């Protein structure tokens, strides 16, 4: 992956550098009528929002759900701009959407999670954007936690000459029941930031949480992790919303949430922090050494199993280890889920290492018998 994003992005002009006021893009999931769009925008303007979002073409999981008002809503967004002075943002998924949005003078467009997952669709959008440097583009993560796919989508947009670009973490699809509508997987945003420190990253707690009560904690979490802003669904009458009503909040509720957020300094260089960071470095060294020691023991066990014709995976032994660690975790103040995932990763690697030993043996064996 080359680094075009790093070289060619410029700051999003609408994100203020004011550390104390969180930057928030807000608006309804869908524009439903001129009145709903304009009234919601006016209420959001009053609480200090500067960029208004509203979906016109809605990518819905099931056919027959409300699929948006389409291009006619562009007139309502133009009206919002005229009447309130807010910048306006909407989602695009096809060349026709991009052309219509450019014609209407929309300031910001976003590519949704489903579209981001499809490189053909993103390329079509990128081609339609060529020559339109005045527009800012926000790219939501794809539905699967595939960082390169996400970066690739942004790369296509940057390759088309767009320099005002940002990413939105909205979480990832999950099969089965989950506490979140879309699992956050914060580590993808952390890695994205590590690779491209100048790329603005917003968090969409609405689609991530899927419920009103999760918006405040997810928003605080995002700011604690150094996100540049939020992308939140707000509707003047959420209970009557035609799409995503469980996760939309009224502008006055949004105001309370914004006021309650604690925005911490992005970089601190206190001496205490340095001391704590040194302790972390020491812990990491110890962890690596102990892991290496454990793997060496595993390889010896692998050699023993090979000599004695035993199979690599002994499920009952693994279950026993796992249970013992989970029991111990609690008394050490560690979360059992965390220990479970760490032990499962360690076990996977142990199995891989032991298989390597057995396959080496097979290689030796086959060369002898040739
Ligand atoms: C949206 O922001 O309205 C939307 C459809 O989001 P997502 O692509 O995250 O599902
Ligand atoms: Mn929505």
List the SSEs and their pairings.
Blueprint (H helix, E strand, L loop, with lengths): L3 H5 L15 E4 L6 H13 L4 E3 L19 H12 L2 E6 L2 H9 L4 E4 L1 H4 L2 H11 L6 E5 L6 H13 L5 E5 L16 H10 L5 E3 L1 H5 L5 H10 L4 E5 L17 H10 L10 H37 L7 H17 L4 H34 L1
Parallel strand pairs: 1-2, 1-8, 2-3, 3-4, 4-5, 5-6, 6-7, 7-8
Helix pairs in contact: 2-3, 4-6, 6-7, 12-14, 13-14
Bound molecules: phosphoenolpyruvate and manganese (II) ion.
Could you write a compact summary of the structure shown?
The chain has helices at residues 4-8, 34-46, 73-84, 95-103, 113-116, 119-129, 147-159, 186-195, 205-209, 215-224, 251-260, 271-307, 315-331, 336-369; strands spanning 24-27, 51-53, 87-92, 108-111, 136-140, 165-169, 201-203, 229-233.
Give the bound compounds.
phosphoenolpyruvate, manganese (II) ion
Going across the major beta sheet, what is the strand order? 1-2-3-4-5-6-7-8
Are there runs of 5+ residues with pLDDT below 50, and where? 364-370
If classified by CATH, what would the architecture of the largest domain be?
Answer: Alpha-Beta Barrel
CATH class of the largest domain: Alpha Beta
Number of strands: 8
**Helix and strand string, N-terminal first?**
HEHEHEHEHHEHEHEHHEHHHH
Write out the CATH superfamily name of the largest domain.
Aldolase class I
Strand content: 5-15%
Q: Quick one: overall form?
A: elongated
Q: How many distinct folded domains?
A: 2
Largest sheet: 8 strands, parallel, barrel
